[in-house]
Task: inverse folding
């Protein structure tokens, strides 16, 4: 760890310069959590919108912001890429070309297999990149919704490959732990299969339900409908990229879901109350097992 991060904080690391690319909800929360926990001497934000950068600076998520990537990564110790998944690979490659050779790079993308394969295909041998995905966030966007406690007691998945440097892997795991996360190591493909079920399919279903509501019935959409479709308020461009990147994982989950849905349809068509009770009881057990 000492070879990657100098000095010590209460969390046994001190990052000289933490550079966050994309200072919205996730990136802003990374900055706030790092500041709150004393993990970085200096926090630099990178983005396309100057007003967003100024807002992140006013909120304390970053010390300074810039729209110039090369400027931001010139002295970076750790770079965290918090942009939509469709842009992560390009950004990581650019960072690896212009950042110090000692800089460590990670990301917060919701898909892994496609972008990591692309990064490894296009990058030079020895790139100091480790993929990661904090399972935290909401449909809200922007640094104004960021929180220093967003990652506390939440799971972050770290996704090394055979090409991953073991020292870099350990450092990225420790970084997310220092932000308050529990860390689990998975392969990129296993991550995508799991998140296809638990994150991407639920968003697709919420979007389909919200999109199919007849306009004339909106006044009748009360708590149940609103709770079920809340995540459909997420950014369409971001989620289209996620669905495209994890196409196989989402389709596999959708196939299994359709089989379950067909059981409900059959029970309704056949007026089979016992079958409905069994299905609903199974669903209740599954949801109860998740806790609050």
Result:
């Amino acid at each position: 760890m000492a070879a990657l991060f100098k000095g010590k904080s209460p969390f046994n690391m001190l990052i000289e310069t933490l550079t966050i690319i994309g200072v919205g909800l996730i990136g802003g929360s990374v900055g706030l959590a790092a500041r709150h926990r004393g993990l970085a001497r200096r926090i630099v934000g990178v983005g396309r919108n100057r007003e967003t950068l100024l807002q992140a600076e006013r909120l304390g998520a970053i010390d300074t912001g810039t729209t110039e990537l090369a400027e931001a990564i010139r002295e970076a110790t750790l770079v965290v890429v918090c942009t939509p998944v469709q842009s992560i690979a390009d950004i990581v490659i650019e960072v690896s070309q212009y950042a110090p050779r000692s800089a460590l790079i990670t990301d917060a993308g919701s898909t892994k297999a496609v972008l990591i394969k692309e990064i490894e295909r296009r990058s030079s041998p020895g790139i100091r990149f480790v993929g990661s995905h904090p399972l935290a966030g909401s449909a809200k966007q922007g640094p104004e919704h960021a929180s220093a406690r967003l990652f506390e007691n939440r799971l972050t998945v770290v996704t090394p490959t055979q090409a991953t440097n073991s020292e870099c892997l350990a450092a990225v795991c420790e970084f997310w732990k220092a932000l308050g996360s529990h860390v689990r190591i998975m392969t990129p493909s296993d991550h995508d299969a799991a998140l296809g079920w638990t994150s991407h399919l639920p968003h697709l279903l919420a979007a389909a339900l919200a999109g199919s509501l007849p306009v004339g019935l909106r006044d009748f959409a009360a708590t149940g409908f609103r709770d079920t479709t809340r995540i459909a308020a997420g950014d369409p461009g971001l989620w289209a990229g996620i669905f495209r990147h994890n196409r196989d994982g989402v389709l596999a989950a959708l196939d299994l879901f359709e089989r379950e849905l067909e059981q409900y349809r059959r029970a309704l068509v056949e007026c089979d109350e016992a079958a409905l009770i069994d299905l609903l009881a199974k669903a209740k057990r599954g949801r109860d097992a998740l806790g609050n």
